[in-house]
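Appendix C: a fully annotated inverse folding record. The material below is reproduced so that readers can follow the format used throughout the book. The structure is listed first as C-alpha cells, followed by the designed sequence.
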C-alpha cells in the first residue's frame, strides 16, 4: 500500500503535465442523478480469483451512444440509456490493473462494497450502479483496500484528460481507428497514438477507448490486446440519432 500511495502521489503531481489547459468535464449532457438509487447489487464472480503482480493499468472509456443502441427501454440500463437522466458520450467503464502475458488480476476477495453515497458521487461518470459495483469487485479490490480509493484514482485520471468531440469526428470522411487515436493526441500532447487503444465492434462501430498506463500511472505503450483495431481499420461512430 505504501508503494501504491507513492505512485498515486506521483500521478497527482504529474497531472499539470498530462492535462490540457482545462480538465475534461464528464461527457454527460444535463446529467440528473435520480432521487433514489437501486440497492447496491451483490456481484457474483464470473471467473476465478487471480492474484498476480500488477504491471500497468487500463482506463476503459465506453462510447455510450453505441452501448445504448437497442437498450433504450432496458430497465437495467435506464440511467444511462433511457434519456430521462441526460445523454452521455464517453463514460468510464472501469480502471483495470493489468498483468503480463495477456493476463490480469481479478476477483481478489474483499469484505468491502461501495456505499450508495459513493456510487451517487460517481454516477454521472459511470451511469450504472451495477457496473460500478462490478468494477470494484472484479478489478478494484486487486488494486487497493477501499472502494473510495479506487474510484478516486479513476476520477483523477479522467480529470487529467481533454476528451475529443467524437460527435464531430463521426462526420469525418474516411474515418479510421488512427484518426480516433489522433483526436486524443491532439487534445492531450503528452500521449502518443501507441498508448491509446480503440475497440470497434464487428460492424466497425466504436465501442470504447482504452488508455494505457504503466505502473507509475504515466502513459505507456499498449499491449496488442489493449491496442485493439489497427490505425487503418475503417471506423464509424454512432451519435445516437
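Designed amino acids, in order:
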Amino acid at each position: 500500500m505504501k508503494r501504491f500511495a507513492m505512485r498515486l502521489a506521483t500521478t497527482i503531481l504529474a497531472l499539470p503535465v498530462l492535462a490540457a489547459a482545462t480538465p475534461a468535464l464528464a461527457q454527460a449532457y444535463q446529467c440528473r442523478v435520480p432521487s433514489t438509487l437501486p440497492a447496491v447489487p451483490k456481484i457474483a464472480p464470473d471467473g476465478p480469483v487471480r492474484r498476480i503482480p500488477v504491471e500497468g493499468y487500463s482506463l476503459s472509456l465506453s462510447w455510450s451512444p453505441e452501448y445504448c443502441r437497442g437498450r433504450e427501454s432496458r430497465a437495467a440500463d435506464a440511467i444511462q440509456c433511457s434519456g430521462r437522466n441526460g445523454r452521455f458520450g464517453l463514460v468510464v467503464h472501469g480502471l483495470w490493473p493489468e498483468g503480463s502475458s495477456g493476463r490480469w488480476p481479478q476477483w481478489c476477495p474483499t469484505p468491502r462494497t461501495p456505499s450508495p453515497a459513493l456510487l451517487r458521487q460517481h454516477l454521472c461518470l459511470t451511469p450504472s450502479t451495477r457496473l460500478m459495483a462490478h468494477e470494484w469487485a472484479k478489478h478494484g479490490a486487486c488494486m487497493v483496500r477501499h472502494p473510495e480509493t479506487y474510484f478516486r484514482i479513476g476520477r483523477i485520471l479522467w480529470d487529467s484528460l481533454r476528451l475529443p468531440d467524437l460527435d464531430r469526428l463521426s462526420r469525418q470522411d474516411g474515418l479510421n481507428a488512427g484518426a480516433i487515436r489522433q483526436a486524443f493526441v491532439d487534445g492531450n500532447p503528452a500521449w502518443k497514438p501507441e498508448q491509446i487503444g480503440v475497440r470497434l465492434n464487428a460492424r466497425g462501430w466504436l465501442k470504447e477507448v482504452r488508455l494505457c498506463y504503466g505502473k507509475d500511472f504515466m502513459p505507456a505503450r499498449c499491449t496488442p490486446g489493449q491496442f485493439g483495431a489497427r490505425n487503418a481499420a475503417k471506423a464509424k461512430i454512432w451519435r445516437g440519432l
